[in-house]
What we know:
alpha+beta, four-stranded mixed beta sheet, 4 strands, globular
Amino acid sequence: MQSASTQVRYTFGRELRLLTPGDFKSVFANPTRAASPHLTLLAVSTDTDHPRLGLTVAKKHVKKACQRNRIKRVVRDSFRLHQHDLPNVDIVVIAKKGVDELDNAAIHKLVEKLWRKLTRRCNES
Length: 125
């Protein structure tokens, strides 16, 4: 059994979130991209010792609030589980039209693939 100091934590606390408009703006300035027809991930390196996540799911693309919340919940959960594999970057996930037609498992699988692609691209640059 691991001691408390070496235990890997899978939480999604405040320090793992992009909170201010300035946080988001810095990511949009000059990002590394990983995209699919349903989601786009933008990332920029930071000097923090962990990745941070921001989500944008526009009402224009996903009409119902329950669908927007479902998409954000699935992406957050995937981030929570993969945070230790990701480089130290700020990531913004942008949902596109049609993402609400995917089920939770399909979104989870898509996001996992995009995490890998983003990690590879961030390590190259």
